[in-house]
Write a structure and sequence with these properties.
globular, alpha/beta, 3-stranded antiparallel β-sheet, Phenylalanyl-tRNA Synthetase, Chain B, domain 1, 373 residues
C-alpha cells in the first residue's frame, strides 16, 4: 500500500516508472499534486467542478475530494479501461459518494470539447501539452484555473530548437544559463496565445520548473481588452553570451549588438516577458501549506519560490557563468554572491540567483569581486 496525503493506493510500482504501466502512478510527481491541492484551496469559490481529463490512477482528484471541502463535482477521465477500473475501486474503498464524481473513458481532447463550466482543469500529459490546450481552455468557466504541465523540457529548453519552433512557435536559447526559465516562458506564451485566439485572457499566476517537467497555472478571463493586455507582455529576449547582458523587447526593438561589450546578441522568442508569479498568491500558498499534508520537497520548493518572487526579473545569474565570464579562478560561496550582488536564490538552479541591480552594476561588482579573489 502506498499512502499520499489521505489516499491509500494498492499499486505495485516497477523499477522504472513509465507510460507503459497498466495504471500510471508516478510518486515523483507528488510535489506537482501538492501544489495543485494548495492552488485549489486558495481559489475564492466553493462548490467547484474540477476536471482531470488524463486521470491515470486518479490520485489527484482523490486528494481534491478527501483533503478539501471545496469540490462539488469531480470529473475523471482516462482512455485506459484498467485505469478507470482502478479509480472506481479507489472511490469505493475511500467511501466517496457516487454523485460527486463523473467517470469517463474517452479521448481527452474529445471529452474536453464536450464539457463546460469547469472551475479547475488540469492538462498533465506525457510530453507536450500543445495538442490539449485549446480543448482545456474551452470548458473552463470565467475566473477558472487552468493547470498545464510539459515534460518535453529538452525541447522547450533548447536541445531541439527546430522541434520547439514547430511545436511552440518560438526559438529557445540553450546557451543562456537560465535556459529552463526561457523554456517555461515559451510554454506560458503558448498558452496565452491559445486563449487569445478565442478572446480569452489566460493570466499566468504561478509557475515553476522541477525535476523533469515545467508547470504553470492560469486564471481565465474574457474579452479582447484583457487579452490584448497579456499579448503586450509577449516579446523577445536579447542575450549576450560574452558579458551575460539580457533584456526583453518587442519585435520592433530587436537589435544585434550588446550595449555593454559590443558582442553580437542572441535572440530567443517570442516568449512571456511578464511576471512568473502573483506575489500575493505565493504568500497565501505559503501560509496555507499547513492545511494539507505536503512533502518536505514541496515545502522547500515553495519556500524558495516565495523568496524568489520578490525579485521578478527576466532571467538570473549563476555562480559558474559569472566565474567563467570574468575568469574568477576560486569560486566564492553562494552566500558571498548573494551578499555582493544583493541577490535572491532561484528554484531553477542551486547555484542561481536573481538581482534587481542593473546589468551595468552587476558588471562593476563582478570586476570588484575578481580583484578581491
Amino acid at each position: 500500500m502506498i499512502r499520499e496525503g489521505k489516499v491509500l493506493l494498492d499499486i505495485e510500482l516497477p523499477e522504472v516508472v513509465s507510460s507503459k504501466m497498466q495504471v500510471f502512478y508516478n510518486p515523483h510527481m507528488r510535489e506537482n499534486r501538492d501544489i495543485s491541492l494548495l492552488m485549489l484551496l486558495n481559489m475564492p469559490s466553493q462548490d467547484l467542478t474540477v476536471c482531470d481529463p488524463m486521470g491515470a490512477s486518479g490520485i489527484r482528484l482523490m486528494r481534491f475530494l478527501l483533503e478539501t471541502n471545496k469540490v462539488k463535482k469531480a470529473i475523471y477521465n482516462d482512455i485506459s479501461p484498467s485505469a478507470v477500473e482502478f479509480f472506481l475501486n479507489l472511490l469505493r474503498s475511500h467511501n466517496i459518494p457516487e454523485d460527486k464524481v463523473e467517470v469517463y473513458k474517452e479521448d481527452a481532447s474529445l471529452l474536453l470539447r464536450k464539457l463546460r463550466n469547469c472551475h479547475y482543469v488540469d492538462i498533465d500529459p506525457f510530453g507536450s501539452p500543445v495538442p490539449f490546450l485549446e480543448g482545456g481552455i474551452l470548458p473552463l468557466a470565467r475566473y477558472g484555473l487552468l493547470a498545464v504541465s510539459a515534460t518535453d523540457t529538452s525541447v522547450l529548453s533548447g536541445t531541439y530548437p527546430e522541434t520547439c519552433q514547430r511545436r511552440y512557435g518560438s526559438k529557445p536559447l540553450l546557451s543562456a544559463e537560465f535556459y529552463h526559465e526561457v523554456g517555461l516562458r515559451i510554454l506560458i506564451k503558448k498558452v496565452v496565445e491559445e486563449g487569445a485566439k478565442m478572446d480569452y485572457a489566460l493570466k499566468p499566476v504561478f509557475s515553476y520548473s522541477y525535476r523533469h517537467y515545467m508547470r504553470a497555472f492560469f486564471i481565465k478571463d474574457i474579452g479582447p481588452k484583457r487579452t490584448n493586455a497579456l499579448i503586450r507582455q509577449i516579446g523577445f529576449l536579447l542575450y549576450c553570451d560574452r558579458c551575460l547582458y539580457r533584456e526583453g523587447v518587442q519585435v520592433e526593438n530587436i537589435r544585434h549588438e550588446c550595449p555593454h561589450c559590443k558582442n553580437r546578441l542572441l535572440v530567443a522568442g517570442p516568449l512571456w516577458l511578464g511576471n512568473l508569479w502573483d506575489e500575493e498568491l505565493v504568500q497565501r500558498l505559503w501560509e496555507t501549506r499547513g492545511m494539507v499534508e505536503i512533502s518536505e520537497n514541496t515545502n522547500k520548493l515553495l519556500k524558495r519560490i516565495k523568496d524568489e518572487s520578490r525579485a521578478q526579473t527576466l532571467g538570473f545569474y549563476t555562480i559558474s557563468s559569472i566565474c567563467k565570464t570574468f575568469r574568477i579562478g576560486q569560486s566564492p560561496t553562494i552566500e558571498r554572491f548573494l551578499e555582493v550582488f544583493e541577490g535572491t536564490r532561484t528554484h531553477f538552479s542551486p547555484e542561481g540567483f536573481r538581482t534587481l541591480l542593473s546589468h551595468e552594476e552587476v558588471l562593476k561588482r563582478a570586476h570588484e569581486l575578481l580583484q578581491r579573489t
